[in-house]
Design goal:
Layout (H helix, E strand, L loop, with lengths): L5 H10 L4 H8 L4 E2 H7 L5 H13 L3 E6 L5 E6 L1 H4 L2 H14 L4
Antiparallel strand pairs: 1-3, 2-3
Length: 103
């Protein structure tokens, strides 16, 4: 019997969770605030975005920086581990453009 590599299965389980990959890809462009992320990730609710950012932060892929202001602002950015995903996300994007049709 053949089985998928355990590490690859964990990666797809985490990155395949709705919105996680999209949020990471959005942060590829650089640090951004919550409101800008919400506008960029079309269709996500505030509560789900907050939940996913918490998961990505706990996983060590996203860093949350608070500027006490005034006014108080929160910015999210990829960590070195998050940035390490950029080549894989780029290749997935290239593959999807060439092989997946909009259905």
């Amino acid at each position: 019997m053949r089985a998928c590599d355990g590490a690859l299965a964990r990666a797809f389980k985490f990155l395949g969770k709705r919105w996680n990959g999209i949020i990471l890809a959005t942060l590829m462009s650089g640090p951004t605030g919550f409101a800008q992320l919400r506008r960029s990730v079309v269709g996500i609710s505030d509560s789900v975005l907050s939940e996913r950012l918490g998961e990505l932060t706990r996983a060590g892929l996203v860093d949350r920086n608070v500027d006490e202001g005034p006014p108080i602002s929160v910015e999210y950015r990829l960590t070195p581990s998050g940035n390490a995903l950029l080549p894989a996300l780029h290749e997935l994007s290239v593959w999807a453009e060439a092989n997946l049709t909009d259905t």
